């Protein structure tokens, strides 16, 4: 199927080319670095399949333009689909498919990487030692063993994060609308959200962004947290209300923050802006804290995950092309992701 991919980077193209070659080259792939916006929809004209990435916003206007250009399939190369106006897609008879799981290990391991780096001040130690500063002031961490880790969203990524943290000897608490047997079996205890906030030394977010989780971490939630808590967000930026997070850091209620996602990331992340003036004052403020580590939505970025994304995306397109439907279709009523 003629497929146009938006927001592509040089490092992911070989994975798509290889996956397509291995499948016998059934698809004609055109790669664009440009993001998918109303202005760039013209690039998709004549392509029945469009493949966007996480920060391409598929608004009603974008979907209408794609529909006018002959697109029938939106093949998301992500698990999250909060960036698609699903009602509009359904109205336009556009099928939306996604990659429900590629490497949940990649995201779980990156979440724990942020925890350990923050805990032991690896980001600060790295800079100090390079300057010949071997002083240890400000680098006191804590043993992970016996600390309480609160996992919000115990699906594929949350469960793997729980498994890793169990290996450290953490006590596991969870909050989810659908408790997982796997997590219960590993000793995780489900509690309500306020209890998780009050009890946890580490809170790690692995729920999808949906109307229920939008700004789940707001001023009220921050106020309920244990003094000095560590907060990790590798899910979606808008699960956290950034001003409340900044206030929590300033009041010392929140002791450490690790973010791989940021509510306003779509105009920033995945781009080299090192020669530009940063206009986002909230992000600029977050970058001033010594106890905050931000990575630019890279939690998924392992070779295994890129391979999985390419394979499943192309399988999704093939399934749609041959059968007119797809197992990994996303429906408008699906609000739990
Ligand atoms: P999943 O669907 O396996 O698990 C999500 C869990 O959240 C489910 O157990 C669900 O019941 C729960 N949940 C839904 N609504 C909830 C609510 N209101 N309160 C509490 N829990 C709720 O999804 P998976 O694969 O574990 O991914 C989780 C999220 O991670 C994705 O939706 C995506 O936003 C994010 N993600 C981030 C990546 C990154 O590179 N930073 C890469 C891949 C995913």
List keywords for this structure.
single chain, 337 residues, alpha/beta, Rossmann fold, 2 domains, seven-stranded parallel sheet, five-stranded parallel sheet, globular, binds 1,4-dihydronicotinamide adenine dinucleotide
How would you describe this protein?
There is one protein chain. By secondary structure, this protein is of the alpha/beta class. The chain folds into two domains: 2-102 and 302-336, Rossmann fold (3-Layer(aba) Sandwich), CATH 3.40.50.720; 104-294, NAD(P)-binding Rossmann-like Domain (Rossmann fold). Helix content is 35%, strand content 14%. The protein is built from twelve helices and twelve strands. The strands form two sheets. It has a seven-stranded parallel β-sheet, sandwiched between helices. A five-stranded parallel β-sheet has the order 2-1-3-4-5. α6 links the parallel β6 (148-152) and β7. α1 (13-22) packs across α12 (303-323) and α4 packs across α6 (156-167). The radius of gyration is 21 Å and the shape is globular. The mean pLDDT is 96. The structure holds 1,4-dihydronicotinamide adenine dinucleotide. The site of 1,4-dihydronicotinamide adenine dinucleotide has 33 residues, from α4 and α6.
